[in-house]
From TrEMBL:
It holds the Pfam family HTH_18. GO terms for molecular function: DNA-binding transcription factor activity; sequence-specific DNA binding. This is Helix-turn-helix domain-containing protein. It comes from Mucilaginibacter psychrotolerans. Residues 1-12 have a biased composition (Polar residues). The lineage of its organism: Bacteria, Pseudomonadati, Bacteroidota, Sphingobacteriia, Sphingobacteriales. Residues 185-283 form the HTH araC/xylS-type domain. The keyword DNA-binding applies.
Amino acid sequence: MITRTSSLSNQKMKGGGESKKSYLSVSCVNDTCFERRPQQNHDCYTVIFIERGICECHVSNEVLSLTSSSIAVIKPGQTFNVMLQKGSIGNILSFSFEFMQTALNSAGMAQEFHSNCLAGTVCVPEADRSFLTDIISRLRQEFQTNNGLREEILRGLFQIFALYLNRISAPKLPNNQNRCLYHANRFFALLDEHFATLKMPADYANLLAVSPSYLNFIIKENFGLNTGYFIQQRVLSEAKKLMTAQEMTMKEVAYTLGFFDVSHFSKFFKRNTGIRFTDFRRAKVA
């Protein structure tokens, strides 16, 4: 379920663990409402895209100057302060890792987005600016409606947006960073392939021929959470998709995901989402 907020600032997720909520917010930003935006900690990614004018963005200890040729990507946990020059206008997107993973239908692609945006800013080719402006405008318009298939359309538009940023922002990194990112990329690729059968960090460490502690270190160093978290979230993401898209029963979902004890799957789902499987299904239907 996509959380909607009336506030233009990022909101912390409530209930069942903040980082486990699927969250998206799309807002218009201009010099009137965001001229002196206060610094804040947040648990989501934030993307700032300026359509016209100039924006100065203070991110932690760094100052970014944004125009229509660049995008700022702010990682979870970073503080930021946004100031726009008079007449400037743009958009702010905030979203959780879970929403991004669900929209892209791939832990690997979500990890690639995180890795590609390490620099904080992404340059937008002039030929692509109108395309990007249109996608974000459509995201904002759809976010403000309550029409049918709203969540599906938002995920589809966001998928195009995130894939586009992945394409134009792939960085050239030093060899030591390449090695770490290689193992991280391989972990997420293997996770997409084996999440239904392999659910322990040691399983993926064995496939990568590295130690579980090393794998956990590079994942936590780059993404802020341990290997086990991403394994759990990939399984949960697939469970929700099977429940909604294919209308499977809890027993069918459990068996498809390699849980041969349905009660074990039920406890796993509630422990990691804060809500029972049946209650989650009922909320989706409603």
